[in-house]
């Protein structure tokens, strides 16, 4: 079981205040299963499908005859139009369930590969760090060390379906990103063509006027 480190007196103090909480969570859960405490940085603010930043939905509220918008802080939704969750019409997620799933994914990545997913790190990720993570998570590396990629997942007591579903989501996300890049190139080519047509039309008008 993976649990976040918030409220366990782990990490830096918030604005110099004392650390509250304790280690009672892992003590209770450890009676039934193995417990791993993982960093929950950005786990409630990052989409687990496209790894883009999430935002709070807003609702219109009327008070004293005035209409204003208010954030719904109990949920998040993805604004990436090419994201898997948006295309599946499941963009809105509950804050608690999203955080719990993200904590599990980050913890699983840390145990299997020795590093959390780059999208959940506290600093901006460089291209070198992204390439290093790709090397760490390559199936060929695990096949050389264990003979099978599935064996690694079996060792830590997780089903192969979890790793397979994560891989499918990553593949879909990469596909939609490539699709977006292709559409952007086509749009740019279309704009360039329109600009050339307009310039040609202007030249024809100038020649006819002369």
Automatic annotation (TrEMBL):
Protein keywords: Membrane, Transmembrane, Transmembrane helix
Region (Disordered) residue spans: 191-210
Domain of life where this protein originates: Eukaryota
TM regions (residue ranges): 98-117, 149-171
Full protein name: Uncharacterized protein
Organism this protein belongs to: Rhizopus delemar (strain RA 99-880 / ATCC MYA-4621 / FGSC 9543 / NRRL 43880) (Mucormycosis agent)
């Amino acid at each position: 079981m993976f649990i976040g480190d918030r409220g366990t007196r782990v990490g830096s103090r918030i604005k110099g205040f004392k650390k509250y909480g304790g280690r009672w969570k892992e003590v209770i859960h450890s009676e039934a299963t193995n417990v791993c405490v993982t960093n929950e940085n950005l786990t409630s603010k990052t989409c687990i499908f496209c790894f883009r930043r999430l935002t709070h939905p807003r609702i219109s509220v009327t008070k004293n005859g005035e209409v204003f918008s208010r954030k719904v802080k109990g949920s998040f939704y993805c604004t990436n139009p090419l994201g898997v969750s948006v295309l599946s019409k499941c963009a809105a997620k509950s804050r608690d369930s999203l955080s719990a799933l993200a904590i599990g994914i980050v913890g699983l990545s840390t145990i299997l590969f020795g590093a959390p997913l780059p999208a959940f790190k506290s600093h901006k990720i460089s291209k070198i760090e992204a390439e290093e993570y790709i090397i760490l998570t390559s199936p060929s590396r695990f096949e050389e060390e264990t003979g099978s990629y599935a064996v690694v997942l079996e060792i830590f007591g997780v089903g192969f379906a979890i790793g397979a579903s994560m891989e499918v989501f990553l593949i879909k996300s990469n596909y939609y990103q490539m699709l977006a890049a292709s559409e952007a190139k086509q749009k740019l080519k279309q704009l360039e063509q329109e600009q050339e047509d307009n310039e040609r039309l202007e030249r024809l008008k100038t020649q006819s006027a002369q």
